[in-house]
From TrEMBL:
A Pfam family: RVT_1
Regions annotated as coiled coil: none
Domain Reverse transcriptase residue range list: 133-403
Protein name in the entry: Reverse transcriptase domain-containing protein
Disordered: annotated segments: 1-22
Amino acid sequence: MIKKMKGKKKKKKKKKKKKKKEYPVLSIGREIAVEDGKKVERFLKTFIKVNSSENLTDQSKEIRKDMLKEYPDIMGKKVTGNDLLEVPFSMSELRNAVRRMKQSAPGMDGVSYSMMKHFSENSMKVILAFYNRIWMEGILPQSWKEALIIPIKKPGKDRSNPMSYRPIALTSHLCKVMERMITDRLTYDLEKINWFSPYQSGFRWGRGTLDSIVSLEDDIRKAFVNKESVIAVFFDIEKAYDMLWKEGLLIKLEKLSIKGRMYNWIKEFLIGRSIRVKVGGAVSSSGVIENGTPQGSVISPLLFIIMINDVFSRINSSLGKSLFADDGALWFKGKNIEYTIKKMQGALNEVEQWSRENGFKFSVEKTKIILFTNMKRTVDIKLKLYKQELERVYTIRFLGVWFDSRLTWREHVEKMEGRCKQVVNVMRGISGQEWGADRLALKTIYTVYP
C-alpha cells in the first residue's frame, strides 16, 4: 500500500502501544463525573433518558393507553400457522446470511462474523439447529437483548457534556445473523404483496435515493414549464429510532397479519432490552430501554420503515411525497401561491396528528420550507408545525443533493467542487512519484472521503 523511501536505511519498527481512548470530566449542571466508574453511570442515565416515554406529550401518552386497550393481547404468544414465513430456516439461508455480514466489533459474547465464516460443516449444522430451536420456541437468549455501549463524541460538540456523545451499540453477532435471515424473509413477503408505500425508497430492494431525488426534480421542472411554483417541506424526525413505540409496531404487525413465529420473534427481540456503557475498563450497571430499536441492528431499519409506512397515508394524492427511511418530504405545485400554502398547511396538520398517534415528534428546528419558483416578486410564506413557524430556506440538502430555489444546481456544483479540491489536496499530500500511497490507497481515500 505504501511505497518505500529511496536511499533511507530501514529502521527497526518500534511497537506502538495502542492509544487508550480517554474521556474528559463529564458535567451536567452541578453533577461532575471524574472517575470512569462515575462516567459510565452518567452516560447510562443520559442514554436511557433519550428512550424514555417522558419525552412524549400528554396527548401521545393518552393515545397509547387507548390503543393498548383496543389491542390487549399484543404481548401474548401468537399461534403458528402454515405460512411460508413460519418454516424452519435452511442451511442455504444461514450461509447466505453469514456471507453477507461485514466485519465489525462483536458483542459481549465475543463471537465474531469472521469466526462464523470459518466454522466447519458440523459447526454450521449445530448453529442452524440452535437458530431453529429459538425460532420454534419463540424465546431469545437474554444476552441477545443486551448491548454494550461505547460513547463516541459527535463532531464539534462539547466533550464534557454526555449529550454530545453518540451511543455505539455492540450486540451479539450470532443474533445479527439470525436478524439477517428474518429480515430477508419478511422483506420478501412484504415486497411480494406490494405493501410498502410507493414513495418509500429507504432500505428496499431495487430502490435508492435517486428515486426520491428524480421524483422531486421532475415535478419542479414540470411546474416551471407550466409557469407554476412548488412549495416543499423537508421533515426531520426527532430521535427517530430511539423513540419508536414497540407496542405500536406490534399493533401494526398484527394489522399486517404477521403472526406465529415471525411475530413472536420480533416481539421477543423488542421487549426487555437493556444496555451497559463501557468507558476504559469500567462498565456500568444495566439499564432498561423503554422505547426504540437497537442502533446498528440488522432488522431495525425494516422495523422502522414498517412503523412509518403510513405517515403520509392521509395526505391528498395531489401532493408529491418522498420517504427515505426517516428523511421525508412533501411538495405541492400550483400557480396560486396562497392556495398552495393553504394546501400544504392542511398536509402539515395531518402529519402532526400522525406523529401524536404514533409516538414520534418532528423537529421544528430542522424541518424546513423552500419555494421553488421563477417568479421575481417576493412571496411571504408562513407554515406551522406544532403551532410553531417553520424556517424558510433558499437552498437545502436533500439525500446528498443540494437543491436551490431556482433549480440552477449552482449550490450543488460549488459544494462538489469544494469537496473535490479538498480530497485532491489530501491525496497530493500523501503521494509522490517515488514515495507515498499507491494507486489503490488513493482510490480508497477518494471513495470514502466525506
